[in-house]
Amino acid sequence: MDYTITFDEKATQWLFSKTAEPVIVVKPFQPGNCCVGGMEAEVTFVKPDFENLFHHQKVEGISIFIDQVLEFKDRHIHFYLTGFSVFKTLQVKGLKRF
Description:
The chain is mostly beta strands. It is built from 1 helix and 7 strands, in the order βαββββββ.
C-alpha cells in the first residue's frame, strides 16, 4: 500500500535545484543517548544499497525510499525545508514515534 506523500513548495524547488532526478531516503535514526526515547527519521539523498528493505514510491518525479521499519500516521508523509543558505535541509513530518 502506498503512502500519501506531500511536499511544501520550497522543498520541491530546492530538490530540483540540486539534481534533475532527486532521490530521498527516509530511515530510522536513534541517537546514542540513553535518555532519548522514541525514534526519529533521518533524511538522506543517496539511493540505498539494499532497496528490498525499503518501500519505494515516485512522486512528482522524486524517487522516495522509506525504510520498512518506520510507521507514519495515517500513512501520510510530509516533507518540508528548514534552515537557510547552505544550511538548508529536508525534514519529514508524520512519523509515529511510539
